[in-house]
């Protein structure tokens, strides 16, 4: 009697999602804004000062926007995503200490270069590494996707790749690697904040920095080049560069020789109290919870529909076409990493739509979770004795009514531990949101680390917050499981 209910619900859900995307999005070409993407862990070119992204690149683009009456929006994302954001139209310009190379010129246009930089080697004091020749066979750290990465791979060997320079330098300071190859200006900043490190006098290679602009935006490229020339002629560019190159850090973490208590107190103050840096964790935590909660609901809705369709097909042979589509969905989603799905949804599916990044994350994680939830629920349905269905039908109930009133309640109790585990996994998977410039909990810890150059406390704080949330969620699920078992008596 209710044979087509699943089809109707599925179509209604898809139509609602389509309307939501249409309402939230607008074409990027219609906005009167200038969107800049960067990786704000690269001082003195881009870094956080309080809640604001500052630095040579950031201030230059700020001045360009001011002179051309544009509203500037700066988004912080993983370095290996900034060029993709420009290519797909998600951003107008990328400024993140980007080196001009022939390969990159094939994909994007570059403005006139504004900085010449060198690739240098950072080593620990007392190291026997004294030049490029000494790097053979050593463990070398680089920031993924940078010129240092390219140079070391081509000329020395396979390096240890890190998400940012701060992590690479932290690994060097703790003896995990033997050297770090990095751009000269950020290398000086890192060495100034880490006692026991120094830069070798010989550079590996020279390069030029420029800003990246999409190839079909000649008017934007012309505007940038003209304004950059004006800024160079009137001294603005030199003043911005001198401002940040002249600033030397005074934040040094207390050494453990002064006592573990003093060291922890000083580190806590620097990492969380000073400049209200604890707010990065709080704001990131709220974003993580928002994405996780909404994605869980979406995953449950998708998983429930797919499970019912597949189990109905297995038991009755109906919904053949829908079953094929569900099987294809499960194969694709479970066969690809969630970070790849997130990037595809943001850079490909919504390439021409200015949609909320939180919504993109919810859709990506919801769709991903739905595939796993579907198989969990389907296993619960198939585990219920077939006699239960026969008993319901013999009492005059329809297939749909028997499924809702008899089968699904038993299946839900059977799979509750597995569902809880899936929700916990989903919560932790949201840590890759930084790839699309979302400041989640993990990204909040990265921002603190990029300012203080202390890897220990920010990472421990992030891990503890995740652990507390997971423990609370596990306890709630345990109580729910006990309550459902009581009802069976």
Count the E strands. 14
Mean pLDDT: 86
Distance between the termini: 33 Å
CATH topology of the largest domain: MetI-like fold
Question: SS-based structural class?
Answer: alpha/beta
Major pleated sheet:
6 strands, mixed
Roughly what fraction of the amino acids lie in strands?
A: 5-15%
Helix content: 55-70%
Tell me, what's the shape? elongated
As residue ranges, the low-confidence spans are: 1-7, 9-16, 18-31
**Oligomeric form:** single chain
Number of helical elements? 18
Which CATH architecture of the largest domain?
Orthogonal Bundle
CATH class of the largest domain: Mainly Alpha
Radius of gyration: 27 Å
CATH homologous group name of the largest domain? MetI-like
The number of distinct structural domains comes to 3
Structure, explained:
The N terminus is likely disordered. Helices cover 60% and strands 12% of the residues. Helix 5 links the parallel strand 9 and strand 10. The chain is elongated. The longest helix is centred in the middle third of the chain and has 39 residues. The strands form 3 sheets. Strands 8, 9, 10, 11, 12 and 13 form a 6-stranded mixed sheet that branches. Strands 5-1-6-14-7 form a 5-stranded mixed sheet, with helices on both faces. The relative contact order is 0.12. The protein folds into 3 domains: 228 residues, MetI-like fold; 125 residues, D-Maltodextrin-Binding Protein, domain 2; 90 residues, 3-Layer(aba) Sandwich (D-Maltodextrin-Binding Protein, domain 2), CATH 3.40.190. Helix 12 packs across helix 14. It is α/β, with parallel strands linked by helices and 489 residues long.
